[in-house]
Amino acid sequence: MRNETMETDSAEVIPFDRSLVPGTQEATRPVSPFPDDSPLYFPVESRSVRVDDADGLPQSASGFKAIVRTDTNQVLGIHGRSYKVVPNEPLFRGFDEALQASDLDLSGLAIEDHVNYGGRRVIRNYRFPTVTAEPRIGDIVELRISVINSFDSGNAFTAQVGGMRLWCLNGAVSLQGTSSVYGRHTSGFDNNRALTKINKAIERYLVAATDWSEWSQRELTSLQVQTALEAFPDLNPTLLKRLEQAWTIESDHAGNTVWALYNAATRWSTHTPVRPSSEPNRASIVMDRERRVRQFMHSRAFKKLVA
Q1: Is residue 61 a contact partner of residue 53, using CB atoms and an 8 Å limit?
Q2: Of 59, 80, 101, which residue is a domain's last?
Q3: Comparing C-alpha atoms, which of 299, 231, 237, 295 is closest to residue 269?
Q4: Is residue 270 located within the same domain as residue 230?
Q5: Is 1 helix (H, G, I), strand (E, B) or coil?
Q6: Residues with Cβ < 8 Å from 267, sequence gap 6 or more?
Q7: How many folded domains does the chain comprise?
Q8: Matching Pfam families, A to Z (predicted)?
Q9: What's the CA gap between 38 and 89, in Å, rounded?
Q10: Does residue 153 share a domain with residue 275?
Q11: Calpha distance 284→122 (Å, rounded)
Q12: Last residue of a domain, one of 80, 107, 130
């Protein structure tokens, strides 16, 4: 497991002075929709790659290029020569324009930008407070669309649909949460494709909302809960203990239901502390955890509970 994604052994948040970590001013900051400027909009360019030969002399690696963030001179990725570098700004501005052209109610829209791993991965979260689901009375989940781009081959330009549960600020994960908006880096943004994906995201959210409502009515036995938790991906004793603690909290609120079990998993993904040195990359770490929650939802043990 990479060091930046390792969890602390204690469930308590370690006091942390963000200013002591280089580059943390980029980590996370709220921005007003739709932003004229953003920490995501840093300059990038492709440069040739050189490697030392057996005699220690530099030689050109003609089949490869480096993607460099020019304001920091940091290498963000190494790619084949056919890779076309596209800065974040036209991609995200294009997606903003697609949102404005969609049928989504943008009233009160909140946007938050994250620059992680020095710019190798960037994330923009859109929260739609007027687009909500209510699986249980008073248990409100807002629509959230997360758009991700990377220069290190970790993610193509993709969108993930989910939600933000207001009771506990858990990030809600849908079963079919990820779809490619843009695919590989090319030379232009396809607005029509983005619009199609936004509409698909809304459809998926509505399906997820129906699932959540059904799950809130489906009760579980202690054995069913334990069996499901033990099917969580990459489980270890510390993680199992965290999930059991999260289940205790969520079941006290929502009863011994599938909805509570699901929210135990999202409580873990959203609220489990990260190492202080990894705090600037928290958004990516949470997103990686949410991928594991989605894997859990596709597990045989969980599917058996919702069949």
Answers
A1: no
A2: 80
A3: 295
A4: yes
A5: coil
A6: 168, 170, 246, 249, 250
A7: 3
A8: DUF932
A9: 8
A10: no
A11: 8
A12: 80
- Tens of pLDDT, residue by residue over 8-54, are 333 333 232 333 333 333 444 445 468 889 999 999 999 999 888 88
For 64, the domain range is: 44-80
- The C-alpha atoms of residue 62 and residue 59 are separated, in whole angstroms, by 9
Amino acid (1-letter code) at residue 261:
L
CA dist 160 and 166 (Å) reads 19
| Structure token pair of residue 277 | 């040195």
Whether 141 and 180 share a structural domain: yes
Question: What b-and-e string marks burial along 249-267, b requiring 16 or more CB atoms within 10 Å of the CB?
Answer: ebbeebebbbbbbbbbbbb
Residues 191 and 235 in one domain: no
Tens digits of residue pLDDT in 208-254: 889 999 999 999 999 999 999 999 999 999 999 999 999 999 999 99
